[in-house]
Amino acid sequence: MRSLSVVLFALLAGIGMVDTAMAAGGADVLQQQCSSCHALTKPADASLDRLWERKGPDLYYAGVKFNREWLEAWLQNPTTIRPGGVMYAKVVKASADKTADTIDASKLTAHIKLNKADAGAAADALMKLGTDLDLVQKGAFKNGAPGPMAKMLFSKLRGCSSCHSAKEGSGGQSGPELADAGSRLQPDFMVAYINNPQKFDPHIWMPTLGLTDADVQKLTGYLITLKTAEAK
């Protein structure tokens, strides 16, 4: 028997309320495989409690955040993006010598893998999410060259490396790894998120740094250079 969600999407598609290409596959994959852990529409509850209890990062703005090619490939072969999971405080523990924090890997859950067809359909559907929201200004990233100070902004001057790693084994673990940021993220999204993380997640712990536009452009330009070997 077809699930109620599938029937509903079919009915809505028939009366022109849902994109039929999305209803035929991508929306079903998101509903069946992703919705239990990720918010696919902007949550009405913007409380800290919801942020604490969510099982995966919000995807309601995935279409203005991710690059589609990366999405399709990653969904077929997921790799670690958040070393400490979606909520670092839940999995971190003090090391035996009390000098550093370590991650309790037993508390982390592996992401599901999708086959090629489902990954492609899901990627297409995800790229539709958030495009109708006023979150990212198109053309916000203007400077294609990071400049000589850009890496230093990340590693030393602005403290990004205390939470994020730009290469394996180097940098903090409480935030998403950025070693493939240039493959994964859209430049305009990076500009918007660096400028105001709380616009996307009201209680997110990443600070608003108050950088000048010149520094945001340099930092984004540096992050764009960070790509996986197969994407270079």
TrEMBL record:
SUPFAM superfamilies reported in the protein's UniProt record: Cytochrome c
Signal peptide as annotated in the record: 1-23
InterPro entries: Cyt_c-like_dom, Cyt_c-like_dom_sf
Domain spans labelled Cytochrome c: 21-110, 145-227
Keyword tags: Heme, Iron, Metal-binding, Signal
The protein's name: C-type cytochrome
Organism, as annotated: Rhodanobacter ginsenosidimutans
